[in-house]
Amino acid sequence: xKILAFSDLHGAPSRAAELVEAAQEADxxxxxxxxxxxxxxxxxALALLDGISAPRVFVPGNHESAEELSQAAGPGVTVLHGAGxxxxxxxxxxxxxxxxxxxxxxWSCDMTEDMAEAQLAPCAAADILLLHxxxxxxxxxxxxxxxxxxxxxxxxxxxxxxxxxxxxHIHDSWGVRGRIGASELVNLGPVPNWFELE
Length: 198
Known about the structure:
Layout: E1 2-6, H1 13-22, E2 28-31, H2 42-47, E3 56-58, H3 66-72, E4 77-79, E5 83-87, E6 90-95, H4 113-120, E7 128-131, H5 151-160, E8 164-167, E9 177-180, E10 183-187, E11 193-196
Parallel strand pairs: 1-2, 2-3, 3-4, 6-7, 7-8, 8-10
Antiparallel strand pairs: 1-11, 5-6, 9-10
Helix pairs in contact: 4-5
């Protein structure tokens, strides 16, 4: 299965057009949150992706809530937040939001480490963990070199050992890859990232 994955679209039409064009070759499209900006323009941002015909699985970022994303998502989109699904035999578990709580204020959709741990606890096995926030210590460095990832997410990846752990959120770490045990982790960014899983 050819999987196209991205994060942090933030309503950018040129980025969306590139993703839609690339997705013509995809069997599955994964979106790791932050489709819009500051809880505004979500429907318009998702409409930019309407040309994608492959099944889509999205998690909310900190710029949109799970409820907002579920309401705005059209047919062919599965929204996960503390939940899983199976597509063509691949088990996907998703967790959105900023973890730990960001300094951005009331508009930001965030969770504490304890909340994230509780949401991830039901997941015993997955081929793909689709996350908005990165794990602590990997693909989580800001421009000031601060490590701002989630300890709960790191622990869940180490416990579950998915084949892929995909995230976004920290723009300065877009494109950074690494491993936690046998799991490949990628901070995606708003560009086509390709993976092939059987």
